[in-house]
Amino acid sequence: MANSSLLTQVLKSVFFKKATGKAGRYASNSSKLYGLAQQVYKKTRDGDFKSGANEAKEQVFILVRLIRAYASGEYRKLPWKSLLSIVGVLIYFVSPIDFIPDFLPVIGMADDLALVLWLFNSLSGDLNEFAEWEKKTKTINIG
């Protein structure tokens, strides 16, 4: 229940509103999307994730791959509203100063991870479609 309360507070925070306000400018600019994807990848790779957060870490990497595929034009099946949600969450994710600042040991990533899990639950259909597309494009057909 505490996670739900934290999520509600994050979604209502000025920090999240600021991030979602920037999402449109990022989503319509491929170079900004690539830059954002790189920042997210670096924070996820180098970040202070607990061992139990491996699933969340993998989910973030899926979002990075989706943003890169969208920016390159390889994958455009994602609805604009979903893209804006993803970009807004990722902008929030890379910001070190947010509802719970990232420099705080242990709890600094709690708000970021809660938001990523919320996003995956909210956009599961769109993200599953991307995963299927990704699987098909990475598979080599012999015969």
Describe the structure in brief.
The protein has 143 residues and is mostly helical. Helix content is 73%, strand content 0%. α1 (2-12) crosses α6, α3 (30-46) runs antiparallel to α4 and α3 packs across α5 (80-94).
Structural description of this entry:
- The protein is mainly α and 143 residues long.
- Helix content is 73%, strand content 0%.
- The chain is built from seven helices and no strands.
- Helix 1 crosses helix 6 and helix 3 crosses helix 5 (80-94).
- The protein starts with a helix and ends in a 5-residue tail after the last helix.
Highlighted features:
143 residues, mainly alpha, 7 helices
Profile the largest sheet. none
Which residues form runs of ≥5 with pLDDT under 50? none
Q: What helical percentage do the residues reach? A: over 70%
Order of helices and strands: HHHHHHH
Summarize model confidence as the mean pLDDT: 90
- Report Rg: 15 Å
Question: Count of helices?
Answer: 7
Find the count of extended strands (DSSP E, 2+ residues): 0
Oligomeric state as shown: single chain
Termini separation comes to 52 Å
What class do helices, strands and sheet pairing give? mainly alpha
What shape does the CA trace take?
globular
Strand content: under 5%
Describe the secondary structure blueprint for this structure.
Elements: H1 2-12, H2 14-27, H3 30-46, H4 54-72, H5 80-94, H6 110-122, H7 124-138
